[in-house]
Design a protein that fits this description.
The structure is a homodimer of 437-residue chains. Chain A has 15 helices and 18 strands. Chain A has 437 residues and is an alpha/beta fold. Chain A folds into three domains: 124 residues, NAD(P)-binding Rossmann-like Domain (Rossmann fold), CATH 3.40.50; 171 residues, Dihydrodipicolinate Reductase, domain 2 (2-Layer Sandwich), CATH 3.30.360.10; 87 residues, Alpha-Beta Plaits (2-Layer Sandwich), CATH 3.30.70.260. The longest helix of chain A has 17 residues. Chain A is elongated, with a radius of gyration of 25 Å. At the A-B interface, helix 2, helix 6, strand 12, helix 12 and helix 13 of A face helix 2, helix 6, strand 12, helix 12 and helix 13 of B. Strand 12 of chain A pairs antiparallel with strand 12 of chain B.
């Protein structure tokens, strides 16, 4: 069966774009076999034509003129692999307006402007695919949108930022400081020159936002997600957690609680007998809890040229087959009647790990536990590591105090935390981390 | 958008069939939302109408007459959930001949008669979906057939039989004997009254056969897979492996080696730093190595009413959307020009664990290692656990000798094993287990 080729434009020939172009041009037979028709890279749009590139394309394919794609009615599908919000947004809208289906790996764009882009695409009768936007090598969009279609997803627990996970693994396994581990991540190419969006939780929050919208039909702005990063974590917390049998991960979490949806991205203690605690290095992992299937989980590389290009190419093949168009029509995206509303942060519930620096003198433990108890916070574990005995000095020693609480509301915790800060015997800052169920 | 309902027949209302009927009849709104149209259970075909059932269906739905489905042109899709080879095969062929698309969870049927069934379906212009046939709750058919479409899969390592995995976990973690662990699996409903197909590797081999055909386009008969089960494993091997840092799993493995494909299902030592070693209890896990994406892995419940019903229902929704039809047309199933041929067993290569019972007397170690060395088998680890000192007794003591080899061919190993068996100082039987890379 010989069918017309799918003519494709790749807009943005950076790391991922080059990977996609390589797969498509170096494996034409494989593409025909998988897609049932040839996939032809008609144009590759770049900003700077003269830049040296790691791929040789036939004459006439490389161009710096997006309009040559927009105006060509024979180009059916375009990949937006420019990244960032502008001009990526304008490029995607122009491509859709010109009748192209669009494949994108742009999580920031979809998280911030997904509603507008998807609504416009549907109005135009076009399709947008975005498997590569969340957890590159893990087919999580297909899992949620298709394989788990019989389920209402009840919870998501995920490691969605490989850079942070690499840093945390180095801190745990090689006892490195945060700064040294970050430097190592940059040296290995896992972290950008400016790693802020990775380590402060923004990148993971954008991906969680997309996953949450797909899974719960609830519009999520990242500003509504309770986000904290790994950039204030200390080696000492990594080690205390390890001593308690936990590993700290930057956990993206979504949980249905009645008709409320709790969303957070934060460093979280995960018990070592949970699979997520065992995911070390620059990997992603996602645990989905479906009301029919139970727990299903996925792990793989979340970023990098080839894993991301693999996901983009799978989307292109889906477009060539015609399957993507059917899927997109049916996806529960940005719907108008959400089944769940976002829970106010103060009402979300979790177990917590607290590390306080307290003066080593009588009644401190009573004062601290009293403040927690007043807010209904019950204690699961209290550890005051033994400090060296001192006698008769005038200097009061400061010692750590580690507390693991039972489940409590974020509101109660914040109120207790404020009172603890007022205690003369408690030094700033308090370290407060969530503990996963 | 209101579309015609999809009229469905469920053939076989056992555990899984009842689960599917429950989801479809108890969640009609969810089905409309996911499929874009109602899914209507028109008929449920059973053998015995009078049997008490865990589900109430509207009058006229329950029937013992398959012909009422065959003859009804308004029934578009039928689920074969009868299991076994006969009459399941005849039922599926009759349904296809009558113009129905078919969803099946029947791994034994597809493994043995898949070629005939799929060819007939394609000839009839019909579709067969079988996500539930392999690793129920894990969407592995979609992963291989769709999400990894940019890749040539290079290797599969999988735990595909939950019953065996439960038994191995009990033996490792609770130090139970094989017999006691099996009894426990039966008491919990994980193992059938006759658990032979689970524990002797047949069930896993059927699933590996289907996965291998999908991933490599190579026709596989289970008789061509090197299969051994967990039923001869001893507690002592579980513990020696643990001491060496390994966990024994019933591993289904496929590996591309040049243009050859190596397939096996056998108890295998997996190093504890590999995720598969950490999968305990009645779960399945699958590691796929794609040439573009690298390693991606999946875990979840491989069997049970709801996980399997979740997969069947996802297939039904795919049919209702029209996506399954496109996928089936494109799947690389039982193709005529396979890219790989099966490697003869003697040529397959692996590391091995050997446990010998040897007489505790001079030159035994030299004899044993000489036989291995003659066949080019090089040793990675040799452990002879210390035996209590005896003096002057006439009875020669028998002691265990544990050897881990470097990679060698199965042929060399079998030849060395035959020679070892001839040694007067080596008692029968030798325990030989593969060690995963």
């Amino acid at each position: 069966m010989s069918r017309d080729p799918l003519n494709l434009a790749i807009v943005g020939l950076g790391n991922v774009g080059t990977g996609v172009a390589k797969i498509l041009t170096q494996q034409p037979e494989r593409m025909i076999q998988r897609a049932g028709r040839p996939i032809h890279v008609a144009k590759a749009v770049v900003r700077t034509l003269s830049k040296p590139r790691d791929i040789a394309l036939p004459a006439g394919v490389l161009t710096d003129d997006l309009q040559s794609v927009i105006r060509d009615p024979n180009i059916h599908v375009a990949c937006e692999l420019v990244g960032g919000i502008h001009p990526a947004k304008e490029i995607v809208l122009d491509l859709l307006a010109a009748g192209k289906d669009v494949v994108t790996a742009n999580k920031a764009l979809l998280c911030q402007h997904g509603e507008e882009i998807f609504n416009f695409a549907r109005k135009q009768g076009r399709t947008v695919c975005f498997e590569a936007a969340v957890a590159g090598g893990i087919p999580i969009i297909a899992a949620v949108g298709q394989s788990m279609a019989a389920n209402q997803i009840l919870a998501i627990q995920a490691i969605l930022n490989g850079t942070s996970n690499f840093i945390l693994s180095e801190m745990l396994l090689k006892h490195q400081t945060y700064a040294a581990a970050l430097q190592q991540a940059q040296a290995l190419g896992y972290a950008e020159a400016d790693p802020a969006l990775d380590v402060n939780g923004t990148d993971a929050a954008q991906k969680l936002g997309i996953l949450a919208q797909l899974s719960f039909g609830t519009k999520v702005n990242t500003s509504q997600i309770h986000v904290s990063g790994i950039d204030t974590l200390q080696q000492t917390d990594i080690q205390y957690a390890a001593g308690l049998g936990y590993t700290i991960k930057l956990l993206a979490s979504a949980r249905v609680n009645g008709d409320k949806l709790e969303l957070s991205v934060r460093p979280t203690l995960i018990h070592n007998d949970k699979p997520l605690a065992q995911i070390h290095g620059p990997f992603n992992a996602i645990l989905l809890d479906g009301d029919v299937v139970g727990n299903v989980w996925y792990s793989g590389r979340g970023a990098g040229q080839l894993p991301t290009a693999s996901a983009v190419t799978a989307d292109i093949i889906d477009m060539a087959i015609g399957r993507a168009q059917l899927t997109f029509r049916q996806l529960d995206l940005w719907c108008d009647t959400p089944r769940f509303t976002l829970a106010p942060e103060a009402e979300t519930r979790s177990r917590y790990y607290l590390r306080l620096s307290v003066e080593d003198r009588p009644h401190v433990m009573a004062d601290v536990t009293d403040r927690l108890g007043r807010h209904g916070i019950s204690l699961a574990t209290v550890i005051q590591p033994e400090a060296p005995e001192t006698e008769g000095g005038t200097q009061t020693q400061v010692v750590p105090l580690i507390i693991m609480t039972h489940r409590t509301s974020r509101g109660s915790l914040l109120a207790a935390e404020a009172e603890l800060s007022q205690l003369a015997s408690v030094r700033q800052p308090l370290m407060v981390l969530a503990v996963a169920d």
